[in-house]
Structures are given as C-alpha cells and as structure tokens.
Amino acid sequence: MGCYRIRVATGAWLFSGSHNRVQLWLVGARGEAELELQLRPVRGEEEEFDRDIAEDLGLLQFVKLRKHHRLVDDAWFCDRITVQGPGACAEATFPCYCWVQGEDILSLPEGTARLPGDNALDVFQKHREKELKDRQQIYCWATWKEGLPLTIAADSKDDLPPNMRFHEEKRLDFEWTLKAGALEMVLKRVYTFLSSWNCLEDFDQIFWGQKSTLAEKVHQCWQDDELFGYQFLNGANPMLLRRSTSLPSRLVLPSGMEELRTQLERELQNGSLFEADFILLDGIPTNVIQGEKQYLAAPLVMLKMEPSGKLLPMVIQIQPPNPSSPTPTLFLPSDPPLAWLLAKSWVRNSDFQLHQLQYHLLNTHLVAEVIAVATMRCLPGLHPIFKLLIPHIRYTMEINTRARTQLISDGGIFDKAVSTGGGGHVQLLRCATAQLTYCSLCPPDDLADRGLLGLPSALYAHDALRLWEIIARYVKGIIHLFYQRDDMVSGDPELQAWCREITEVGLCQAQDRGFPVSFQSQGQLCHFLTMCIFTCTAQHAAINQGQLDWYAWVPNAPCTMRMPPPTTKEDVTMATVMGSLPDVRQACLQMTITWHLGRRQPDMVPLGHHKEKYFSGPKPKAVLNQFRTDLENLEKEITARNEQLDLPYEYLKPSCIENSVTI
C-alpha cells in the first residue's frame, strides 16, 4: 500500500500519440490494482501520475494496458512505462516499444531479462509461452523463390506486422526520394534527347544531381589501373579478392606468353599474386530489355600487390575456357587502350552483379531477415538474446519486402536495367545460396581463407576485424551476465529452438554449410551472435554505402552490357565501348537507384546508439556503455588514419554504420 508514481512515455514518431483513452493496471506478486487515469498519450512526451493504492501489491511483475476507442482505433506507440513504488522500492521499468491497437489487454512484463529456466514465478513462464504462441501466428515463413532463404510471409509492405513497418518519417522520406529520383531521370532523358551518345564524355551529360566527393574522384580517375585494383580491396565489393595459392586452372596461357607466365609465377612465389574469379556467373541466363538482348561474362582477373600496397591488374580473361570454343583471349595492360578499358569494364559489370545479388542482397539483407523472423518467432521479450538483438532488426522486414516488390520483382528495377534481370538474378541467387557458408559471414575466418590478413592497404579487412572484436566483446559481456556456465546455454530450450529455426528452417538446412543446429557453450553462442550483429550492421554498411561513390559514374560499374564480350583486341573501337555500356535510360536508372539506396538515411541510428532501453538494471547498461566507448575509440583511430590517405575509407567508421539493415 502507498503512493505509486507512474510515468508513461510515448514515441516521438509522427502519429505516435493517440486520441483514444488508455486504461492501466499494476500487477504485483500479491495483487492487482486498476489505475483510474484519463490518459490520452501525446507524441514525444512522458506523462507522470501519482496514485495511492490501498492494498499491498508486492513486487511489481506486469503493467497491463488497454486502449479504448469509440469511432476510430487511433493506434498508440508506447515506448515504456516506469513505476516508482512506495518508500524505498526500486523503480520498475516495463519496456514496450510497439504499437498498441484494438481493445485487447496488453501485458508488459518488468524489464529484467529472464531465461526460461530462470523463472521463480510461474506467471512469467506463462506470459512468455503465450507471447510466442501469438507471435508464431503473426510472423510466418514464406518461400519467395525455391532454393533461397525463407522470408517473412508478406506479399506487400501492407501485409507486415505493424511493429515491423517503417515509422511515418521513414516512409515519407523513402517514397518522396523515389519520386525525386524519377523526376531527375525524366529531366536527364529530356536533356539528352537530342544529344549524341557516341563517346565516354557523353556520360557527363547525366553526371549531375546528387553525388559524393569520391564519386567525382571516380569520374576523373576510373580508367586508371590503380583505382581498378583498389576497388577489390576497399570499394563497394571487397568480398571477392583472394591471395593466389597456385595459378588458376582456368587461366590458359597460349604460346607466346611465356613472359607473362614467368611474371605470374614470380608474384606467386613472393605471395603478392591475387585473383578475382567471377565463375559463379558462368551459365547464368541474361536479360532482354525492350527487345534488346543483354550480355554477361564470367571473368578472371589476376593482380599483383606492389611493395607500396598498390594492387594492379596483370591479365584479364573475360570468359572461362569452353571445349567448343577457341582458347579465350587474354587482355593485358599493354594492349590497345580501348581494348584494355573494355576488358576492365566487363570485370566491373560482373562485379556489379555479384556485389548486388550475392554479397549485398543475399549475405546481408536475406540473412538479416532470417535472423529477424526467427527472433520474433522463437525468443520472447523477456529473453536476454531478444533484448540484445531487437535493435538490430529494425525496418529489415519492410525494406526486404519492398525489394521483393519493386527491385527484384517481375518488371522491377533489375528487369528494366540489369543484365542478370529477367530471371538470371534468381538463378544467380540460388547458386550463391548453395555456396553460403557460416565461415564466409565471419571476417576472421573469411579474411584468413582469402589470405587478406595483415595487408596494410586492405582497409576493409582491417576495419572489419576491429569491429568484429568490439562487437564480440560486447556480446560476451551481455552473455556472461545471464549464462554463467556452458550447461546453461545447452539447457535453454528457447535459445536452441532459435538456433534450429535459423539454420534448419530460415536458411533451409544450412548445417551442411557449417551453420550450427545447437549451441553447447558460451563461446559458440557468442560467436554466432557476433556474426548476427556484424551482418546486420557493419557488413551491410561496408557493402551498401559504396554504391553512392563507386556506381554513380556508370562506366566504372555498368549495370548491364549490350554487346557480347570482345574476342579480339584490334577491332575494339569507341563505338564498341559505347555500344557495350548502358544506354541513357539504363544509366539514368542506375544513378537514381544507387543514390537512393546508398545515401545516408535521415533517421539513421548509428551502431550501438539505439535509444530503446530493453534491458533493466545497471549491469547491461554498463556493458552497452563500454561498447559505445570502444566504438568511439575506433572512430578516432579510423579518422586519424584517413587523414593520411588520398582515398579515405569511411564505410566502417562506427558513426557511419547503421544499427540495422534499413535500406
């Protein structure tokens, strides 16, 4: 008995408040009391009330709330409710961070994280079981295409659960920038309507509007071999390059190229020979755009690392050997300039395909969606892993659903402008899914496998490893608060179900590719959770943000090629180059979409800086604060390093990394 002080916080988003009346109850170990409040929540405000309650409620367990409406169900976004009990009682926090709709009673448990075997009070066990049962009806799996990871069951964004939708500011920004991009495309088409499209300088006619400083640098230097090689280390797609351990079997060196073989073998012996093999593209069907066939290649590039750290191409094989065709032509830096430039353009086109589909869409977006759906289906709000992961799945289901209905759908952007569109993109995704391994998502394993550890000029590799270490330390700090022994990990049924849901269901029996089906130790759990958070944050940042810089100047990364790959060098002319690169319409579409998807989001939440407080108590807060301190220190390191570089690498600065996959 005594006076209770109740504070009700409403979200700051547009339309978070409500004109409907809200009814509240406090539920304690010894009793329950209705609070006679006339609460009508106001956006962005925290309302405070004092109420005297006659009976002794005991330790507070839940706050129950119900929103009443007469004519209109005016949804309310409740952030959290805090209650200060009488006397010296500790303040109790009841996180919500969700939309309250309808007139059903919503029970918010006190925010202390609890394991399923950790419930002294049966009411919490009953609550978590009911919560999961309800969630599993709301968050259902679907198959978008056979052979790919499963997705949330939603044919459109309107079918998504309300708590997975964009907030209103995000929705308005996303849709208005699409409209602005469409208008810019129209203006560029009108501007170039009567202009020539015969030489590379003609691309300048559409190189205006939204672009970055680095995009301007690419515009000036894209033909340089040094910039071509740099992109394999630190560009939009730093995921394909690997150190050679032998000369690739597909690299057939005809007679007369003994000097090249000697150079390659010397670099190989020195450990300075690298390769980028696009063989995954071999056999992928190509698009037909407005009746015009598009083309695709599966190149191999051999590069050498100079002592200065520069990575320079030595030879390009545009297509792999085929028994029914002559030995593939090898293109060299000493070839006629246009022939060498066209060979590099074929490589850049191939890199565009693998970057967008394998390393961006599959390895970040679709993996993040599997993690998100499994989390909502298997982990109740009281579970510490739910509290750890929920900030890192914000907006992921909606951005992926929009991609499936606008970007990679029938008649979508890929079908309109990209050489793998029209179905080839789905086949490529299937091939990439079959090769998706657990190790490939973990930088310490992936970079070691590719031989990129310890390279001073590999800035992505350096920053990715540092971030992995910081995230791993954060995860370990949280895990050790709740799992003091390995048997507590192996004995957690909700955690084990979540693991199986990801590997066996969402990733379609991925245990054959190294993904775990159970966790038997703290170490296994920490490693997997580090992968989850790294994928949803740092890896997506590294892969997504570079589009704005490296793809705005279309010749540097053409989305499609309109002529077959060259088989001879002497016949390559400027007409051949321009006839191969995207036309005006395709180039404008590429510029618009890569600006829309690569720009910094206005409501961007930097890694680790979510405002939601899912955990209660000082210990998780201390772990999160240390995480933020570690990120700030890394930010200073990267800033100091970048000041010494001609091309600063910004994508993995913590302030540039979004807390979830939102775009």
TrEMBL record:
Chief place of localization: cytoplasm
Binding annotation for Fe cation: 360, 365, 540, 663
Entry note: cofactor: Binds 1 Fe cation per subunit.
Domain of life, source organism: Eukaryota
Pathway(s) the chain acts in: Lipid metabolism; hydroperoxy eicosatetraenoic acid biosynthesis
Any one biological process term the GO annotation gives: lipid oxidation
Compartment list: Cytoplasm, Cytosol; Membrane
InterPro entries, alphabetized: LipOase, LipOase_C, LipOase_C_sf, LipOase_CS, LipOase_Fe_BS, LipOase_mml, PLAT/LH2_dom, PLAT/LH2_dom_sf
Domain Lipoxygenase: 114-663
UniProt cofactor(s): Fe cation
Catalysed reactions, semicolon-separated: (14S,15R)-epoxy-(5Z,8Z,11Z)-eicosatrienoate + O2 = (12S)-hydroperoxy-(14S,15R)-epoxy-(5Z,8Z,10E)-eicosatrienoate; N-(5Z,8Z,11Z,14Z)-eicosatetraenoyl-glycine + O2 = N-(15S)-hydroperoxy-(5Z,8Z,11Z,13E)-eicosatetraenoyl-glycine; N-(5Z,8Z,11Z,14Z)-eicosatetraenoyl-L-alanine + O2 = N-(12S)-hydroperoxy-(5Z,8Z,10E,14Z)-eicosatetraenoyl-alanine; N-(5Z,8Z,11Z,14Z)-eicosatetraenoyl-glycine + O2 = N-(12S)-hydroperoxy-(5Z,8Z,10E,14Z)-eicosatetraenoyl-glycine
SUPFAM superfamilies linked: Lipase/lipooxygenase domain (PLAT/LH2 domain), Lipoxigenase
Family: Belongs to the lipoxygenase family.
PANTHER family attached to this UniProt entry: LIPOXYGENASE
Name this protein carries in UniProt: Arachidonate 12-lipoxygenase, 12S-type
Protein species of origin: Sapajus apella
